[in-house]
Amino acid sequence: MHIYKVGGAVRDRLLGRPVSDIDWLVVGATVEEMQAQGFRPVGADFPVFIHPKTGEEYALARTERKSGRGYGGFTFHASPEVTLEEDLIRRDLTINAMAEDDQGNLHDPYRGKADLDKRILRHVSPAFAEDPLRVLRVARFAARYAPLGFHVADETLELMRQISTSGELQALTAERSWKEIERALMEAQPQVFIEVLRDCGALQQLMPELDPSPQALAPLQQAAGHRQPLHVRWACLLQGVRDTSQLKAVNHRFKAPRECQELALLVGECLPLAHRAMELEAAALLELLQKFDVYRRPQRFEDFIAACEMEALARQAESYPQAAYLRGAASAARGVDVKPLVAQGLTGQALGEALKAERLQALTRYKG
Length: 368
Known about the structure:
Elements: E1 2-6, H1 8-15, E2 23-27, H2 31-36, E3 40-41, E4 48-50, E5 57-60, E6 62-66, E7 74-78, H3 84-88, E8 99-100, E9 106-107, H4 112-118, E10 120-121, H5 133-145, E11 151-152, H6 154-166, H7 174-185, H8 191-199, H9 202-206, H10 214-225, H11 230-237, H12 244-253, H13 258-275, H14 282-292, H15 298-314, H16 321-334, H17 339-343, H18 348-367
Parallel strand pairs: 2-5, 10-11
Antiparallel strand pairs: 1-2, 1-8, 3-4, 4-5, 6-7, 8-9
């Protein structure tokens, strides 16, 4: 039995990046031998075990064979006869197909270290094309390592084009696709993810509604630079899609989280109003605030303002005074006290109308 660190832990150590999770690979062992040493089996599709002391996952070396469409269309075979090289060749990129033994020796049968040094994302073998999810994974890695100067190898991009035109991308589940999209959007240069998908033809298959031009992706780039949360980045990515039906289609296609869906739709509908905030009449300003329910959900309005500001900065605006103005308007509307109205005996619809009138007056005073 031989145990190796594999994949991302080896890659990131060689790049000098922090290593968080470690993938362990066991070569030359049986399921029975692992259990005899106290490892607890957890793998449904292939043998994965939990270490009895550390709680880390250890996987038996395995090979795989394409048996159907999509990410899950594979048959796995694990046995003591599967070699380290046979296990590593099934991985996606050469930089992820390296291993390190317990002596710290690097095992690199597919020249991943050389590609690390050259800053190249290159597929390990033609079997890369059997898994359509790898198109999104490579694009995500391109976004992650773009600050280090990495780029996708021409031959790998060509394989990604073949996958994109094969129809295999349509077999991906919404959950798996969203997981890759979510992780990519939180990288330092998420616009690179979209650019790579565009260059290999996958964007047209997955998100044809998007405009992948540099101008359209600039708000997302700004959001990443300002360390905005996921839902703001998603809204910034979709800010150019103003057709509500198209926005809903994208949200539904990937089953985006509710917070992401809501903000994207509100930005698509209300961004032009935010840019003209200081020109709006008090009644229109109140309607905008009501739409966001700034009284019970103030953070949603803050996230909207952030997305609008990212879009403005992407157009080389030196500042965005609308942000402070909108916050002030929200504060003025929230400052109206309902207690005096209740004390007057108002209830139900009458109370709602009186409260709205008071808020309208507050906004009129705020506008000066």
